[in-house]
Automatic annotation (TrEMBL):
TM segment ranges: none
UniProt keyword annotations, A-Z: Disulfide bond, Glycoprotein, Signal
Name of this chain's protein: Bulb-type lectin domain-containing protein
Highest rank taxon of the organism: Eukaryota
Record-annotated Bulb-type lectin domain positions: 29-150
SUPFAM superfamilies to which the protein is assigned, alphabetical: alpha-D-mannose-specific plant lectins (SSF51110)
Lineage, uppermost ranks: Eukaryota, Viridiplantae, Streptophyta, Embryophyta, Tracheophyta
Signal peptide: 1-28
PANTHER family per the UniProt record, alphabetical: BULB-TYPE LECTIN DOMAIN-CONTAINING PROTEIN, OS01G0958200 PROTEIN
Length: 258
């Protein structure tokens, strides 16, 4: 595998044209509510059409996954996968729906194989796909407080607004993990995570044991990682590194250019 020197490339956003046909949910609908579900070729689309959520099949694989992909890119490019380790085979009898306050994926046997897994008993929970690529679970469509959000549970792609973090109380990392291969989104050999030893740098690890690449330490003056000088050349992202007694995390946001 070719050595990756600039992992920030996964943040790029491409704009092309996308057309989507939806058989039951209205075209452009961005919400799954308690009386709706996704199955077959049904999708939800963010309000500006930038992201789509539904079942997809990577490459020539016979397996299907619930995932999110760019809505305005010619080639379907997945950026988030829910059931990356447990695929389904019949998308017409499998469904993604709100159940007992959670967003849950049921396979063809109606067995739950993935869930947002939060403590919620509300009957008004909805899942909304936002235009920044964030799938948000909240208590009612007008609620501004997320119960769960995909940006805090990335799989293999780091989108603007997402966090790669280390919980300093539990020592648990929120990391990115490569696919096994182009047709299998199950976790592969490479991961990107904040150093669990407490230093303010990121490691790409092979098989969770051997260090493959490091960003170097965060420099608060230049606001870049010391071994990633290319960050200076990128003027469309605003980077931020935060560290306190509870957590450390790195995030970025796109700068709107007028």
């Amino acid at each position: 595998m070719e050595k990756m020197n600039i992992p920030w490339l996964i943040l790029s956003l491409q704009i092309f044209i996308f057309f989507s046909l939806n058989r039951q949910l209205a075209f452009g609908a961005d919400t799954v509510s308690a009386n709706q579900s996704l199955s077959g070729t049904q999708t939800i689309v963010s309000s500006g059409g930038h992201f789509v959520l539904g079942f997809f099949k990577p490459g020539n694989s016979s397996n299907y996954y619930i995932g999110m992909w760019y809505g305005k890119v010619n080639q379907q490019t997945a950026v988030w996968v829910a059931n990356r380790e447990i695929p389904v085979h019949d998308i017409h009898s499998s469904e993604l729906k709100v159940s007992n306050g959670n967003l849950v994926l049921f396979n063809e046997s109606q067995v739950p194989i993935w869930s947002t897994n939060i403590s919620s008993s509300s009957n008004s929970v909805v899942a909304v796909l936002e235009d920044g690529g964030n799938l948000v679970l909240k208590d009612g469509p007008k609620s501004s407080t997320p119960l769960w959000q995909s940006l805090h549970h990335p799989t293999h792609t780091w989108l603007p607004g997402g966090k790669l973090s280390l919980n300093r109380r539990t020592n648990q990392s929120q990391l990115l993990t490569s696919w096994k291969n182009s047709e299998d989104p199950a976790p592969g050999l490479f991961s990107l995570e904040l150093d669990p030893n407490g230093t303010n740098q990121y490691f790409i690890q092979w098989n969770r044991s051997e260090q493959y690449w490091t960003s170097g330490a965060w420099d608060p003056q230049t606001r870049i990682f010391s071994l990633v000088p290319e960050m200076r050349l990128n003027e469309i992202y605003n980077y931020s590194y935060v560290s306190n007694e509870n957590e450390s995390y790195f995030t970025c946001f796109m700068i709107l250019l007028l």
